[in-house]
Each structure stands twice: as structure tokens, then as C-alpha cells.
């Protein structure tokens, strides 16, 4: 009987699989979008919700880790965290100087533009930097300010953002007061296409469809076969006990 117990224990350990942590502390809405994207590309994923914080942790099979990370990266997941106006101007803070207030407002505008650009289809990440050169004049109260903006966007190779370059420049120009169109520099960079989707082999026989179904339902099939094996071992043990 000890031999059967060891076999059962080993099989139970194998059935648990080798799950590794993919991402943690995710908002539920973003986690759901990531899970849907992974499932759409036939990548199995488990989600665990922390009852205290409501944050989600995603776990995945070790052999699918690389493809999962690359697939999410090419679709801009996980999303970057941006500051909002409450974080920059918390209630009860000491009054800052006009220069500090101007710097905060400029940073807030950069964050808003980055968030807007990141929501465009195909954008993986976006960075915006706004600079202003203040030139003094003969009067101390009148200054000439030249503003400029530098925009960097990394996008998925599946997207064609080059056709949207004019719209992106107009978006930046209209969002920043007194910014001239010629003072906007835009750099678009396609990301490396390192994720290779699994190509389902075509077969004229039914065996190819069976193989595809097993690959897509790996965990249920493993659990089912394991249950049959354990039941067989149990029946064999009972029969031998009766014979003794």
C-alpha cells in the first residue's frame, strides 16, 4: 500500500502544475482585460483577488511565461501609473512659489498627454516632455516664453502609427497653450516583435483536431487522466486486499 500512496502523492504534485506569478497588484478592470487577451491567444492564466485590497494577481504556466509577457507588452499592458491633480496639489500643503506651481502644472499636462496617447490603438508606451524658455525683456514684468514639446511613442509592429503623425502633433499643439506646431518633435519607434503566436497545425484527419483540443484544454485533460489513474490504483489495491 505504501507504493500506491507514493504514486498518488507524486501524481497529485504533478497535477498542481508549475504556476509562476505574472503580475500582481493589478486593478480588477485592467486584470480582466489582460486575462481576456491571454485567453484569446490560447494562453491559460489564473487570477487571484486579494480580499483586503481588491487587487489581482495573475499566475501562469512557466512554459507560457515568455509569450505571455511579450503579448501583454505589445498591447501596452500593464498600464503605467499616472499622477492626478490631487496627488500634485494635496489639501493642506504649504503654499509654493509660482515657479513651483508652473512646474507642477507642466508635469500634470505631460502626464495627461501620456495617458491619452497610451489609449490609442497599438501604442505600447508614450512619453511627453514640455519645456519652456523664458527670455527677459526690458521690462521686468514682461517675458517672452518659447514652449517646445518632445514626444516619444513606442508602438506595436501590427499598428501603423505613421499615418497618424499629423493627428498626434495637432493633439499636442491644442493641449499646450502657446505651443507652435514647428516646436513639436515626434519620434515613433516600432517595438521588437518577439512574441510568436502558436500556429495551429492543419490536418485533414481527425487526429489533428484532437491534438489541438488537447493543447487548448491541457489542464482539464491532465486532471481527468489523473483521476482515472488514481481510481485504477484504488481499485487494484481493493482487489488485492480481497485476494489476501
Structure description:
- There is one protein chain.
- This protein is α+β, with helices and mostly antiparallel strands.
- The protein has two domains: 2-78 and 202-243, 2-Layer Sandwich (Alpha-Beta Plaits); 91-190, ANL, C-terminal domain (GMP Synthetase, Chain A, domain 3, 2-Layer Sandwich), CATH 3.30.300.30.
- Helices cover 45% and strands 24% of the residues.
- The protein has eight helices and six strands.
- It has helices at 2-15, 28-40, 65-74, 85-88, 98-118, 165-175, 206-216, 218-243, and strands at residues 19-26, 45-49, 56-61, 123-136, 143-155, 179-190.
- The strands form two sheets. It has a three-stranded antiparallel β-sheet with strand order 1-3-2, covered by helices on one side.
- Strand 5 (143-155), helix 6 and strand 6 form a beta-alpha-beta unit.
- The longest helix has 26 residues, at 218-243.
- The chain starts with a helix and ends with a helix.
Amino acid at each position: 500500500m505504501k507504493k500506491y500512496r507514493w504514486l498518488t502523492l507524486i501524481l497529485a504534485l504533478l497535477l498542481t502544475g508549475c504556476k509562476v506569478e505574472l503580475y500582481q497588484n493589478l486593478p480588477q478592470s485592467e486584470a480582466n482585460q489582460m486575462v481576456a487577451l491571454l485567453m484569446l491567444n490560447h494562453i491559460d492564466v489564473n487570477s487571484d483577488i486579494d480580499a483586503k485590497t481588491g487587487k489581482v494577481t495573475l499566475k501562469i504556466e512557466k512554459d507560457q511565461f515568455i509569450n505571455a509577457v511579450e503579448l501583454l507588452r505589445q498591447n501596452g499592458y500593464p498600464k503605467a501609473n499616472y499622477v492626478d491633480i490631487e496627488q500634485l496639489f494635496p489639501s493642506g500643503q504649504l503654499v509654493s512659489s509660482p515657479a513651483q506651481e508652473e512646474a507642477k502644472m507642466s508635469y500634470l499636462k505631460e502626464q495627461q498627454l501620456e495617458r491619452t496617447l497610451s489609449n490609442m490603438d497599438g501604442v505600447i508606451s508614450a512619453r511627453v516632455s514640455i519645456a519652456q524658455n523664458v527670455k527677459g525683456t526690458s521690462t521686468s514684468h514682461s517675458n517672452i516664453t518659447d514652449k517646445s514639446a518632445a514626444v516619444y511613442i513606442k508602438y506595436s509592429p501590427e499598428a501603423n502609427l505613421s499615418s497618424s503623425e499629423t493627428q498626434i502633433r495637432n493633439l499636442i499643439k491644442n493641449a499646450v497653450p502657446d505651443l507652435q506646431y514647428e516646436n513639436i518633435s515626434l519620434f515613433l519607434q516600432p517595438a521588437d516583435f518577439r512574441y510568436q503566436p502558436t500556429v495551429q497545425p492543419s490536418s485533414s484527419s481527425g487526429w489533428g483536431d484532437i491534438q489541438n483540443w488537447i493543447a487548448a484544454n491541457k489542464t482539464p485533460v491532465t486532471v481527468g487522466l489523473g483521476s482515472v489513474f488514481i481510481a485504477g490504483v484504488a481499485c487494484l489495491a481493493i482487489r488485492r486486499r480481497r485476494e489476501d
